[in-house]
Amino acid sequence: MNLNIEVNNNVLSAMPGDTILDALNRHGMNVPTLCHLKGLMPSGSCRMCVVEVDGRKNLVTACSEPVMDGMKIQTHSARVIESRKTIVELLLSNHPDDCLYCERNGSCELQKLSEDLNVRERRISGNKNNYKLDVSSASIVRDPAKCILCGRCVRVCEEIEGVSAIEFVGRGSKTFIDTSFNHGLNVSTCINCGQCIMVCPTGALKEKPHIDEIRTKLADPTKTVVIQYAPSITISLAEEFGFKPGQNIGGIMNAALRRIGFNFVFDTSFSADLTIMEEASELVQRITTGGTLPMITSCCPGWVKYAEEFQHDMLPHLSSCKSPQQMLGAIIKSYFAETEGINPADIYSVSIMPCTAKKFEQQREEMTQNGISDVDAVLTTRELARLIRLFGIDMDKISPELADSPLGTRSSAGKIFGVSGGVMEAAIRSAHYFITGKELIKFQVNAVRGLAGRKEAKVVINGLEIGVAVVSGLKNAEILMEEVRNGRKDIHFIEVMACPGGCINGGGQPIGTNEESLRARMKSLYEIDEHDTIKVSHKNPYIIELYDKFLGKPLGHKSHHLLHTNYQERDVN
Amino acid sequence: MKSKVEEILQQYPNAGRDSLIPILQSVQESLGFLSEESVVQVSKFLKMPASKIFGVATFYNQFRFTQPGKYHVMVCRGTACHVLGSATVLEEIEKYLKVKPGMTTKDKLFSLEVVACIGACGLAPVISINGEFHAKVTTESIQSIFETYRNREV
Fold first, then answer.
1. What is the pTM of this model?
2. Contacting residues of B for A168, CB less than 8 Å apart
3. Which of A181, A187, A343, B66 is deepest in the core (most CB within 10 A)?
């Protein structure tokens, strides 16, 4: 049964259970929001979305108020606009004035609201916020002075990721957001996923920058500077340069990276193939020899740290495989260094990741060989865009180029790592081949595709039924782990990604990522898979060559040394 | 041997998050403050993130996070005391003790707390040190008040 509401003197239909905001949005009408996060419980704390409702003395928050039949609503009355404007003016009253060189200049929601509400002077002036920066984390920089206490980071951390590293601390005008006992983020439960950055309306949260260090190394003639990029980057970077969401600009990006001065350009999708070789072999080994099951993927460093903190009993379930970033890092400083005759210490290895947790992963001490890091610096998609602009490269004019061989050639199975379900699908394709010696007739595994937070499927290989589950958003992982702990035996392989939807929605992706852009990015990755000829990791000719010439066989001695890792229980609060 | 906090937690079988504040109150009563360790213990007991507990505890003025000193100084900032200059008194005590409210001096002798009203408006501005009231405090009298306590330690 539909309800009728009257908005600005027009009669509109609404559904029972809608909030006023839901109903308005469905009809293409907008009211500004700030604390609102689609899909989470409304908090109604910022009051930006207030509307006037007939018969109600006070203004009503559209994000939290359910519609009622016959409700009469004014969304832009003089009183409403004045109220919204005052809120913005109050938020500005103690906000730093460094917009010109703020990280979020141009993508700041507070800036946009000021503009939209025609705030043209600083009418209210208070003491400026004066909090210390928290630079303790390897991944995330917090600047509480720029925080407007919308609470979106707190809610994402709790409700999507199940981590709760940060919380409102104190009361009233002295409230700010901090960790338990005001310690640095580095010793908190933070898993570095960066979802807080993605929802932050201002510059209060950002990635730890690596650009300057990379520029120094690019200018150093004694260094061979190599770069690798994660599967989703070639697509999500497009949005930073005004291409339409979902456009694959990998070729242009390769060219841009060479113009910037990187000596070699490699593709992390190549090492995603390598990960599949090792991980699918490990899965087959665990299934056939009675190893610990279900096996759980380990390519997401946010998930790995989460498991180390909260899921100690699940650590033996994690695959011992390093992530693709670290695998390629290790191969670059061993195989590549050997074939090119370069001292590994003279290689500076950079990766571009859609992820802030990769910055943490890169500096883990397990990720080193003889004191030399596998990977030396990590750029997010956003930082890469900044670097390209810094070097004045016109992305509309340069011609596409290929990545360098051999570590830049991939199968499309490695490419779909960028979306939730991709690792699973790639692993199923190769596991099928490893077990039966034959290729799948149909490569698509539709049940594990899509943006749902949890997907399950049964795959039959050689009469053996294998149960698989794919979760993204660690709250979903927590629930699944509890089921496994309570005796679910029908799942053999689990893919976990910390960010909802996988890496295409990573904490390092362009600000303003929304459901529409996510769908476009996902579609694009699967289209690449559709059109590519090599759809399985084990058919990547350069992977075969790498095993022939260097590694031996999957799970062999050299693989174990270079491509596998171990995990440690972490006692954090 | 059970720790004090463990003993307290034992009195709350099957407790949910609604028992958080009574538990924190008992812990503070027993330890004199909420130590980091105790918050972690409560967090594990209630299966609540420590950050949430810290958030709740910092919301309320009644909880403190540093060990109180041997002498606990409460400075009244109620209306009557305010009118008669308690802001200056507080500022002077902060300077003299070199601590801010909620903190304890390095020698662990004095801890400072600000309270809204201790119900002795006739004595304003008033401070209380371990329950002993000092009436009509002035910036000049502060040093001698604190020295009497220091002298007890010699």
1. 0.93
2. 55, 59
3. A181
